[in-house]
Predict the 3D structure of the following.
Amino acid sequence: SLRKLRFVIKQMFWHGRNLGLYVAIYKTICYILRHFGVRGGLESWIAGFIGGFWAFGDSTGVSGAVNSQIVLYLFARGIEGQLRGVVHLHKWLPEYCDIHSKWGFRVFAGFSLALILYMTDYENKVLRSSFNSVMHNLYYESNAGPLLPPSNYAPFVWIVVTSYLSFYFGKLSLDNVLSIIDPPP
C-alpha cells in the first residue's frame, strides 16, 4: 500500500541522513585529532562515539526505529570481530575457537542461547517486551496444555520432524517435502 511505501521511503531517508551526518562528524573529528597528534585508535574511539551519539543516538520515531536496528547490528558485528580478534590477533584462544569454525560457532551459539535463556528465566525485566513475550510463549506457555500443538501448527511440526528424518531418509529432505506442499512450476 501507499502507506507502507511512505514508511519505507522515510526510513531510507533517515538512514541516509544519519549515515551522512555520522561520516561527516567522524571524519572531521579524526582529522582534527590526528592533526594534534592523537593516534593509535584513540581518535577512532573518540570520533566514533561522538558521531554515533549525535547521528544515531535518537531512539524515537521513524529515525529511532532505523537507528535501533543499525546500532544493534553494528554492536553484534563489533562483538563478532572482537571474538575473532581474541583468536587471531591476541592469540588468547586456539584457532578452533574461531566463531567461523564449525566448533567455535557451536560454542558461540551455545553461549548465546544459554545467555538469552538465563536472562529470560532470571532477568526478563531487562529484555524488550516484544522479545520477552515471544520467549514466554515458546518456553512457558508451551509447558501447559496438551502435549501436541494446536492443529494449525501441525504442518510446521510435520515439516520440522520430516526434515530431521531426512538425514536417514533422503526423500524426506526439506526441498522434497516443500515440493509436495508447493510444487515447482
Observations:
- The mean pLDDT is 87.
- Residues 2-35 form the longest helix (34 residues).
